[in-house]
Design a protein that fits this description.
Blueprint (H helix, E strand, L loop, with lengths): L8 E6 L4 H14 L3 E5 L9 H8 L6 E4 L13 H13 L4 E5 L12 E7 L7 H10 L4 E7 L3 H13 L4 E6 L4 H5 L8 E3 L15 H7 L10 E7 L7 H11 L4 E7 L4 H10 L6 E6 L4 H8 L6 H6 L4 E4 L5 E4 L1 H14 L10 E5 L3 H12 L3 E6 L2 H11 L2 E4 L10 E4 L24 E4 L8 H8 L3 E4 H17 L5 H11 L5
Parallel strand pairs: 1-2, 1-8, 2-3, 3-4, 4-5, 5-6, 6-7, 9-10, 9-11, 14-15, 14-17, 15-16, 17-18, 18-19
Antiparallel strand pairs: 11-12, 12-13
Helix pairs in contact: 1-2, 5-9, 8-17, 12-13, 12-16, 16-17
Length: 506
């Protein structure tokens, strides 16, 4: 399917302290691929006079929005309101493409010209949101703009619904990390524009992505009305590799889709509030689910809509959403781990039967792996710092439990680390003493950052077959891709993307 070009303008806000710096930043924004700039005059060290505005607007390389945001709506301008409005009026007379003026400015005092009439709320979604939007649409605005802080991605959906229903060209966004989807999907729902910073550290509002992130990571230029939406639910999600790996896979396979981060705070209520807000128009087709929502996901989908082993695990990490809104789910973690293990050992899954396996840890990843190992009749011993958790897991799946301080006595052929010990940035830590490793033949570390942990380095020195969590991560992501799309996943590309994301050599 050929890529479509978004008609929604990518707008870079300029927040420099001098007109000269703003002019220079405008050129850089043009080079980066911006369609428009917003000159934030409230960031200037001195209020601009006519000569300064003329210098800013003359022979400009991009269309310009002039904004002088007052402190009452989250800006920097603290001077007299009449002076502020005169600056905007002067910019309009000098040929600015758009003048941004706030909705709370009385109509008689608003500068003449092509206006963006805006409202900002940094405390949350306004209780009278519909009333505000109606007032914006009834105004003389050429473009309506509303921005409010997001408590969850359901607020981002509210912003996108404003775009769908607005009678005028509109910018609507939910600020903050939880509202990112409103920025990424602005083009899908026909927004007039969306803001992106020129580089990290130059954001003018919470949650603003960079031009490079919008274009390279989130496929900005390819997102259109027919684009399918996928995402990762979790807390935290900011550093997830999943958007990079799945968006690259969609691009490689010419699938018109985009994958977005969905920050949902812990708690079943928060999870369900988002799921309740998802409507067919959102075109949400699939979800990855990470900590702490895997159990919430299985409760929402329903046991009858998942496979038997996922039911036994009691958690899922993948949800598919049918066009009629019905859900189905699976857990790709267990298959990803088992297949990575069997590939390294050059055996089929049935070859795990009777093999002694030591699993270090008793959390969610351990649970999925223990369930799969038990399904294939491996002899599993679980070592965990909290012994009661190891006992509970072992009792449920027919294994044995040992305290973590007895790990030095293990005598298993296969050792699997399911803890976070050794994960970046604590790369010098290891869950096992080096002298234990000589008793094992295979060591599997489920950590993928770094791909080669201290545990794996020492295991290699001991002559063990080593398996990185990177293999498991790529396997589970590829399985999700195939579960959603029915297409073969580009596994080699996905592997390369993770290495690039981690700044590792291929």
């Amino acid at each position: 399917m050929p890529e479509t070009i978004s008609k929604t303008a990518l707008i870079v806000p300029l927040i420099q302290s001098t007109v000269g710096e703003m002019r220079s930043a405008m050129c850089k924004a043009d080079e980066a691929g911006a369609d428009m700039v917003e000159c934030r005059l409230d960031y200037l060290s001195q209020p601009p006079d006519e000569a300064a505005l003329q210098a800013l607007l003359s022979e400009r390389s991009l269309p310009v929005i002039i904004t002088c945001r007052p402190k009452r709506q989250g800006g920097q301008f603290a001077g007299d309101e009449s002076d502020r409005l005169e600056i905007l009026a002067m910019a309009a007379r000098l040929g600015a493409d758009y003048i941004d003026v706030e909705l709370d400015v009385p109509p008689a005092r608003r500068p003449k010209g092509r206006t963006i009439i805006s409202h900002h709320d940094f405390t949350g979604r306004p209780a009278d949101l519909e009333k505000i939007v109606a007032e914006l649409n009834a105004s003389e605005a050429a473009v309506c703009k509303i921005a409010f802080a997001a408590d969850g991605p359901e607020d981002a959906l509210a912003a996108l619904e404003i775009l769908r229903k607005s009678s005028k060209p509109t910018i609507a966004l939910a600020m903050g990390e939880a509202g990112l989807v409103s920025r990424i999907l602005a083009g899908k729902f026909g927004a007039f524009g969306m803001f992106a910073s020129s580089h990290e550290g130059s954001e003018s509002a919470p949650g603003q992505l960079t031009v490079e992130q919008m274009k390279r990571l989130y496929r900005w230029d390819s997102v259109g009305p027919a684009t399918g939406v996928y995402g990762v639910i979790g807390c935290p999600v900011a550093h997830s590799v999943s958007p990079a790996i799945h968006n690259a896979a969609f691009a490689e396979t010419d699938i018109d889709a985009v994958y977005v981060p969905l920050l949902i705070q812990p708690g079943e209520g928060n999870f369900n509030r988002f799921m309740d807000a998802v409507a067919p128009w959102a075109d949400l087709r699939g979800l990855s689910v990470t900590i702490p929502h895997k159990e919430n996901a299985i409760a929402r989908v329903g046991a009858e809509k998942i496979d038997e082993l996922s039911r036994r695990i009691g958690a899922i990490n993948t949800i598919a959403i049918a066009p009629d809104g019905s859900l189905s789910g699976t857990n790709t973690d267990y298959a990803a781990a088992i297949d990575a293990l069997c590939a390294a050992m050059e055996i089929k899954r049935e070859g795990l039967s009777g093999r002694k396996v030591a699993v270090v840890g008793a959390g969610g990843v351990a649970r999925a792996i223990v369930a799969a190992l038990a399904h294939y009749h491996a002899d599993v011993t679980i070592y965990n710092r909290t012994f009661s958790r190891a006992e509970k897991l072992a009792d449920e799946f027919g294994g044995k439990a040992r305290p973590l301080d007895e790990v030095a006595t293990l005598s298993s052929e296969i050792v699997i680390n399911c803890t976070s010990i050794g994960m970046h940035p604590d790369v010098d830590d290891t869950p096992l003493p080096a002298d234990v490793l000589s008793r094992a033949k295979v060591v599997f570390d489920t950590i993928y950052n770094p791909p080669r942990t201290r545990l794996l380095r020492e295991s290699s020195n001991a002559g063990c077959v080593c398996i990185s969590g990177l293999d498991m991560f790529v396997n589970q992501a590829a399985a999700q891709f195939e579960f959603w799309t029915g297409e073969s996943a580009p596994r080699e590309l996905m592997h390369q993307v993770v290495l690039e994301h981690l700044n590792m050599p291929r």
